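Think of the structure tokens as a kind of shorthand, similar to the way a musician reads notation: each symbol stands for something richer, in this case the local conformation of the backbone. In the example below we present two proteins back to back. Begin with the first one, reading the sequence and then the tokens, and try to describe in your own words what changes along the chain.
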Amino acid sequence: MQNRRIEILDSTLRDGAQGEGTSFSVDDKLSIVKALDDFGVDYIEAGNPFSNPKDLEFFKKVKDIKLKNSKLCAFGSTCRHGTNPCDDANIKSLLSADTPVIVVFGKSWDMHVTEVLKITLEENLKIVNETVKYLKSVGKEVIFDAEHFFDGYKANPGYAIEVLQAAASGGADNLTLCDTNGGTMPNDIAKITGSVVKLFPGTKTGIHCHNDTGCAVASSMMAVDAGASHIQGTFIGIGERCGNADLSVIIPNLRLKCGYETIGKLETLCATARMISEIANTQLYDFKPYTGGSAFAHKAGMHIDGVLKVPGSFEHINPALVGNKRRFLLSEVAGRSTVIAKIQSYAPSLTKDSPEVAAILEKLKELEYAGYHFEAADASFELLVRKILGTYNPHFKLVLYKTMSDYPIPEGGMPASATIKIEVDGKEEITAVMGNGPVHALDLALRKALSVFYPQISEMQLRDYKVRVLEQNSTTAARVRVLIDTADDKNRWTTVGVSDDIIEASLIALVDSIEYKLAQTGKGE
């Protein structure tokens, strides 16, 4: 175990924004800056003010935010060949961002210098040195990103080191080694990083890995073991091509597995990851280490029995350390102990011998025979338990519903409509809504009618909708199972409905979804 301090630079807003399908508005970037600062990140690399007007606007607005933990960084290249740094448009733009730290990148692979920049190796060394020296002369902390360093080192180790020397002699505070193409193996990362650390004992060594071989996290960890004291990456690993080193994995690894001193609020890791994934419109996959929904989920009966007796028997850490939670999955391989453990999470006073438990188990068998599947539908299972225990109080009564679909679809119009009549505390509400299909129309109509009584309904968003045919031999009259995934600004939950009619199955799942939300929030304001 170590106690060395490891700095974290988050590049979600710069390198992460280069990922396919990822785009941040100025307000998005400001929200993420606040979240990363609250989490305790050391450096936030926020963008390149020379590259686009949006980043320029961001750097103007971010000045109004008082950061508690993080230093903001502007990112850009060394000055152009033949231009003094003080006259270079890119350098002027970096300084106009008015950040305390500037991350400047330069070429360290000789092939890139001669074939891409089309300048001599000596000219590149001069550019690197003079750029860093000028930025230091105006009072900036300078992180030098040695682009393509590992490929450059393998091709011409002497020149790659000369580039670092040029930056160091210019006064660079940090020499970050970049595996820009993401193709270097962890063992090579460790060997080369270790050599650099020995050559530059008075300057921090950093690591910046891409995930093109699936090794970015491992390579970053190996670099730290070799002496690096600064890691760059992105939250949830988003980034160009296959992404960047995933800080939501690296940070808990550093602290919980290796004992390194690093940034603070680890218990907010999951909440921070969820928030950033929502803003980035990127799915936070269930199988992600530490932050995924399945990271501490248990399905096999023997595993669940073991965790209940000794949590460490099938969990590598306490999930609460990273703000996650343990889940028991209901399935045909789960066994009685799993179901009982699940029931006890809602009703702790019940035991395996309680008659209510027997009634729940019997009802569960009946519903599973009918096609229900509760492994991925925790919310529906909780409502089922509450119904049998007598603690379920429905918030509304569905009096009637009707859907209609138009064919052919009217040009520019909605192809379906739904009419809903509900009753709440003796008061009725009727509404009709057009939608992009009967299920969409039903969802909109139900929410519209209920929002009269429960304004918090507007917080809900339908995130996913899945249909499975249960009787493949007669698909036109088959029984179907519908899973609906719903979220608000704090939670995410899944409900299930089964019927011979896909609309009815969908409605069952929709009603459960809304009832679950209302059970958590009550009448609302």
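Once you have a description of the first chain, move to the second and do the same.
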Amino acid sequence: MINYRKMTIADYDAVTALWQQTEGVRLRDSDSRPSLGAYLARNPGTSFVAEIDSEIVGAVLCGHDGRRGYLYHLAVAKTHRKQHIGKKLVELALTAIEQQGIFKVMIAVNADNFSGADFWKHTGWKPRPDLLFMEKTADGKPNA
């Protein structure tokens, strides 16, 4: 049986191991234990894990800035895909974010993550051809 629950910083090792094994998920310095702990503290109750027999087999990181929600690092273990775990994790995150008054959520999918893009399109997400995604990192922090 799959157990879904809110992510805590105690899940860090298992969740980052899952993310590292998931194609299309790229970890950065901002995925460190202190950074993730701060993110979870700023966004309580919006990130989730899926467990089977106390083993984390899925995870999603979700939060908001007061206007828009953001989903990061959705991952499901290869051995547990096609069981709607990813879809359920996203539903839980979206419900939690909506309960906080946030009604638009954004995601960024790596351009070479075709299976990820297919998942998002299949679950009702739409590309935004009117937007160009840009970033700027602090000097000396190329892996921020």
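Compare your description with these statements about the second chain. The chain has four helices and five strands.
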